[in-house]
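Can anyone check this?
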Amino acid sequence: MFAPPTTLTTAGTAQGGRRGRRVRVHGREDGGRLRAADLGAELGVRATLVQFSSAFCAPCRATRRVLAEVAGMVPGVAHVEIDAEANLGLVRRLEILGTPTVLVLDAGGRVVRRASGQPRKADVIAALGRAV
């Protein structure tokens, strides 16, 4: 299931907490935006599905098929697969804890949804609705 990017408050309470100011955990200080240079590929005109994978991950192969199919169905949506082991700096910065992890980016590269594990096609399509 896709969830919005996690936010924490400076006092350590979870999203919706009352103490402290909110700080983004995932993404960059400029609003959590990722650029083509970060991903090694161009962003989609409307949205981008970013998949973090590893070589021996069976669910990653199934996730690749689902995301490629959805990207092919929805005009302006790109699918970018990133090898987590070869991009440890980005993995650490985005706090990717396992593969597959999927980020849904809007047209500007802002992370609007995030999920770990193999997603269902219907969930990916629903998550895209938030980005486009």
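Reply from J.R.: I decoded it. Confidence is low (pLDDT under 50) at residues 6-30.
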